[in-house]
Amino acid sequence: MERSNPSEPIILHHLNKSRSQRILWLLEELKVNFKIKSYERGPDFLAPKELSDVHPLGKSPVITDGPYTISESGAIIEYLVDKYGPKLKPSVEDTEARLQYTFWLHYAEGSLMTPLLLQIIFTAVVIKSPFLIRFIARAISNSVFASFINPNAQKHFAFIEKHLEKNQYFCGKDFSAADIQMSFGVKAGVARFPEFVGEKSKEWLKRVEERQAYKDALEMGGDYI
């Protein structure tokens, strides 16, 4: 499919093994003219300081489209879909689907990422603790997992599963940018909380990962979980 042509290619500032993979996938779905500027994580797994020259937060994803530099996944998706791909969101007239679109677009980062990030943090605390106090760190970590992280992860993935039992995609019968936004959290859940992710959620993930744009983006950006 022929790509649309902004006056200048959109630049995706892409950090390896990060959520910017979703934006790469979206750009492939939109078939918009873009190029990738790649950044590699350091030995500490943090983003390099060069990203701070692009945006003060020094995070990815970030895009540059002409005079505009935009950070935050949800904001980037809203901007790109509004400008280049309105078919990737429900119409205003379809109130129910539009509400679902808005909800899942923001839920992915606003709610679902909390237990996923805490899982990474408290796992790292144990691994990086000095040997002599590692047993204390492990005891604290186990307590946090049992009292907060696992119950919240279970609640979130049960909520997602219940929705997908009734819907082929997050907005109903049609694929949308909300599915792209939700993909990272569900895929991370399969990797980190496999006991909590239901069969309908796994079927949905397999379905969206069979899209050609997803495969093309994965080939360009690499594995990200």
Percent range for β-strand residues: 5-15%
Assembly classification: single chain
Structural class: alpha+beta
- Count of β-strands: 4
Amino-to-carboxy terminus distance: 29 Å
Using only CA atoms, what is the Rg? 19 Å
Largest sheet features: 4 strands, mixed
Number of domains: 2
**Can you give the mean pLDDT?**
94
- Spatial order of strands in the largest sheet: 2-1-3-4
Helical amount = 55-70%
Low-confidence stretches: none
What is the CATH first-level class name of the largest domain?
Mainly Alpha
Taken from the alpha-carbon principal axes, the silhouette is: globular
Spell the H/E element sequence: EHEEEHHHHHH
Number of contiguous helices? 7
CATH architecture of the largest domain: Up-down Bundle
CATH fold title of the largest domain: Glutathione S-transferase Yfyf (Class Pi), Chain A, domain 2
Task: Write a structural description.
The structure is a single chain. With 225 residues, the chain is of the alpha+beta class. It folds into two domains: 10-88, Glutaredoxin; 95-215, Up-down Bundle (Glutathione S-transferase Yfyf (Class Pi), Chain A, domain 2). It has helices at residues 20-30, 73-84, 95-128, 134-164, 177-192, 199-209, 212-221, and strands at residues 10-15, 34-39, 62-65, 68-71. α1 (20-30) crosses α7 (212-221), α4 (134-164) packs across α6 (199-209) and α5 packs across α6 (199-209). The mean pLDDT is 94.
